[in-house]
Amino acid sequence: MASASQAAITHRLPAITGRNGLVDRYFYLFASLLVAGIVVWGFSKTVDQNLFHASPPRPLLLWFHGAAFSSWVLFFIFQSALVRTRNVKVHRLFGWFGAGLAAVMVVLGFVIAVVMARFHWLVLHETGTDVFMSVPWGDMFEFGPCVALAILWRKKPEFHRRLMFVATCCLLDAAFGRNDYIFNHDLYYAGVDAVILLGVVRDLMVNRSVHVVYRVALPVLIVWQALLIYLYRGAPAWWHTLTSRFVA
After folding, report:
1. Among 73, 106, 156, 210, which one is most buried in terms of CB atoms within 10 A?
2. Band of pLDDT at residue 22, cut at 50, 70 and 90
3. pLDDT tens for residues 140-157?
4. Residue 65 and residue 184: Cα distance in Å, rounded?
5. More confident residue, 97 or 22
6. What letter does residue 19 receive in the DSSP assignment?
7. What is the C-alpha R_g of the chain?
8. Residue 33 contacts residue 77 (beta carbons within 8 Å)
9. Nearest-angstrom CA–CA distance, 192 and 198
10. Domain residues of the chain, as ranges?
11. Alpha-carbon distance 1 to 5, whole Å?
12. Residue 64, Cβ density class (10 Å: 0-12 exposed, 13-18 middle, ≥19 buried)
């Protein structure tokens, strides 16, 4: 009886975790919905008082920034759904829209970091807004190259989809950071890496190995994230001097 039960369990596992199993087929669609959930959870805490009904009103560019980054989340869900429903040709067609959107996002990301640092310093009279630019600027230095490589390797699906996943996860520190405890303890990057690690778990379940994208990207990201936190919290003199020139 026990051996028969074990055989039944062994028979079911590949249907869930193996190639063409549920995890393999639905992971990226699930991941895109998880990303959306994290964004809604995080920004729901601050978007009303910091944007919709902000006093004083925030710069107009912040609205464009929010629209562009929200569009990326919807784009990621849409593209994941197209692949899941085997509409690969449509997926590739809309991919060029995503490439253009990503380029706009990178430019907006760098510019809005300066605009909001000036706003918080000059209008709200908050300190440390200049050195905090390491975080949004750092995000763009993560997001941009990942998307660029995903475009370069668009004909290599195993590379492309992981790079797009990692690129999207790199934007989540803004959502995690809306929680005061997470922000005050610099745990927003830990949230980012935890979501990326779901991709590692997926690889282990489906392929029994970790793809080279994760083996290279995660260590680089962790070191980079530590540097960004150091620049913000440590505020070395050279960094403060550099960023204050943008803000003043």
Report:
1. 73
2. confident
3. 999 999 999 999 999 999
4. 24
5. 97
6. T
7. 20
8. yes
9. 10
10. 18-247
11. 6
12. middle
Specify the residue for token string 């490439």: 99
Which alpha helices (H) appear in the chain, and where do they start and end? 2-17, 22-43, 47, 60-84, 88-118, 134-152, 157-169, 173-176, 180-184, 188-206, 212-229, 237-247
Q: Which tokens belong to 2?
A: 């026990």
CA 58/CA 221 separation, integer angstroms: 31
CA distance 150 to 96: 12
Euclidean distance between CA atoms 224 and 135, whole angstroms: 10
The torsion angle over the Cα atoms of residues 216, 222, 226 and 228, rounded to 10 degrees, is 70
Residue type, 151: I
Pair of tokens at residue 70 = 């929200």
Tokens in use for 64? 């464009």
Provide the 10 A C-beta neighbour count for residue 73: 21
N- to C-terminal Cα separation, the chain: 76
